[in-house]
Amino acid sequence: MSKKKKLRQFDNLMLEELADDNVAREYLRACIEEDTPEEFLVSLGNVVRAERGRMSAIAEATGLGRESLYKALSGKTKARFETVMKIINALGLQLTIPDEDSKKGDRSAA
After folding, report:
1. Which terminus in the chain has less CB density within 10 A, N or C?
2. Cα–Cα–Cα angle for 80, 84, 89, rounded to 5 degrees
3. What GO molecular function terms would the record report (predicted)?
4. In angstroms, rounded to a whole number, what is the distance separating the alpha carbons of residues 81 and 36?
5. Quick one: pLDDT at residue 106?
6. Nearest to 59 by CA among 50, 47, 48
7. Could you list the residue range(s) of the whole structural domain that residue 72 is in?
């Protein structure tokens, strides 16, 4: 099996897993804590792509064209914060900042 085909199979498996809302939330949580802003946008794009037809629905909900949405989620451009928040909200997610007690608890558990 070619390397390209193996990667495509891996991508498809990842997208199947990300169709589960709980998995998608955990994936994005890990990405926002560990990765660069560009990688987070790519990860957010993976969540959007995880369900067929979702890209069109998200584009409509955000008021962005599909091409603009693909561009924003490519990680190759700097998406505006407003755009990222529209996408997060359209996915039914929230960007939250934990209180100080939560952060201390997380650090001691690590």
Report:
1. C
2. 145
3. DNA binding
4. 14
5. 52
6. 48
7. 3-109
